[in-house]
Amino acid sequence: MRPADRLFQIIQILRRSRRPMTAEAIAAEVETSKRTVYRDIGTLIAQRVPIRGEAGLGYVLEGGFDLPPLMLSPLEVEAAALGAQWVSQRGDPELARAAEDLIAKIAAIVPEPLRAYALDPVGRTPPAWAAMPDAIDIAKVRAAIHAGCKIAISYGDEHGRISERIVWPVAIGYFDAARHLVAWCETRRDFRSFRTDRVRTAVFLDERYPERPARLRARWVRTLGS
């Protein structure tokens, strides 16, 4: 077992136990030596995991322990790093910065043996193609989706034909070539996908659409399987 996996498992053992766990009992469960357990406990304490106890008597994880990043397994850290890597290359500028900040925060808080999983993951995403520039403020679109507010757009299709729409934004699709705004279109009375580089103008309205955003999004997801 890798050291990082072992540290994570020791935390889980202490978390679920209602009584002090001796180094011998921990060693038996993680299949290592008591000496290694003593060393691992010292590492965790140095990383500010609130473990109380001493050799021979047992160890307990103090109540109120709430440090989510320290609860991540190596695979979970790698999954987060891989996802953030993809977003940093293909997301809009606001999301790309957030993805980079996420990895920096994970690397700063997790125990030392886990940091390489965040900063130098073995999983890699291919370089992104140069996407068409957005012609609509994606940060404002995201805010409208969360708020459940309508957007008035002027949109040009692939043939250059212009149409005026009132849409209820549902989701943003991130693709290599372009981003798409998924929305319920009042004109078509159905869900439509609009390439963000083809939006000519956009007015973000204060008017909320009559359906809850999560419910509308669930309706859209159901259409994908039909």
Radius of gyration: 25 Å
How many domains make up the 3D coordinates? 3
* N- and C-termini, Cα separation: 45 Å
Q: What is the string of helix and strand elements?
A: HHHEEHHHHEEEEEH
CATH fold label of the largest domain: SH3 type barrels
Q: Can you tell me the CATH architecture of the largest domain? A: Roll
- Percentage of residues in DSSP E strands: 15-25%
Average predicted local confidence, pLDDT:
88
Number of helices: 8
**DSSP E strands, number:** 7
Biggest sheet descriptor: 5 strands, antiparallel
As laid out across the biggest beta sheet, the strand order is 6-5-4-3-7
List keywords for this structure.
8 helices, 5-stranded antiparallel beta sheet, 3 domains, 23% strand, Arc Repressor Mutant, subunit A, two-stranded antiparallel sheet, alpha+beta
What would a concise description of this structure say?
This protein is 44% helix and 23% strand.
Describe it.
The protein has about 230 residues and is an alpha+beta fold. The protein has 3 domains: about 5-65, Orthogonal Bundle (Arc Repressor Mutant, subunit A), CATH 1.10.10.10; about 75-120; about 140-225, Roll (SH3 type barrels). About 45% of the residues lie in helices and about 25% in strands. It has helices at about 5-15, 25-30, 35-45, 75-90, 95-110, 110-120, 140-145, 215-225; strands at about 50-55, 60, 150-155, 160-175, 180-185, 190-195, 200-210. The strands form 2 sheets. A 5-stranded antiparallel sheet has the order 6-5-4-3-7. A two-stranded antiparallel ribbon has the order 1-2. β3 (about 150-155) and β4 form a beta hairpin. The protein is elongated. The model has no long low-confidence stretch (mean pLDDT about 90).
